[in-house]
């Protein structure tokens, strides 16, 4: 059996169908601090595709624009989670989302391992969770998680 040289193994992306690619890119740049790393026109029934990433890990949010396909939004509970660097960032973004009328859940702090979190609606009705203080890394560092 040959050894793979592919560095992108395991969980690699989440894909969302969007109506307006530019509007969705702007939303995820602002609220999730993601950046477009790839963009292309696509073949029917798709119009265009953009990959967005944080540059910290090999994982992408794939935004797929289509005028002819329809999909259900992720949420209201199902969500994409983004960890923020400070609690203040979560609170600031929640205030901005409330000002724009897209706040789904006011910020709350549930303590460890959940931390401070809020829900925001993206332009297509998907739910984005911003959080600070969630403790996910400790679970991936255990011997059971590496097995």
UniProtKB/TrEMBL annotation:
Every VOC domain range: 10-133
Give the matching InterPro entries: Fosfomycin_Res_Enzymes, Glyas_Bleomycin-R_OHBP_Dase, Glyas_Fos-R_dOase_dom, VOC_core
**What CDD domains would the database entry show?**
VOC (cd06587)
Q: Which UniProt keywords apply?
A: Dioxygenase, Oxidoreductase
Spell out the SUPFAM superfamilies in the cross-references.
Answer: Glyoxalase/Bleomycin resistance protein/Dihydroxybiphenyl dioxygenase
Gene3D superfamilies (alphabetical)? 2,3-Dihydroxybiphenyl 1,2-Dioxygenase, domain 1 (3.10.180.10)
A Gene Ontology molecular function term of the record:
dioxygenase activity
Q: Which Pfam families match?
A: Glyoxalase (PF00903)
PANTHER family in the record, alphabetically? LYASE, PUTATIVE-RELATED-RELATED, SLL5075 PROTEIN
Q: What is this protein called?
A: Catechol 2,3-dioxygenase
Look up and give the organism this protein is from: Rhizobium hainanense
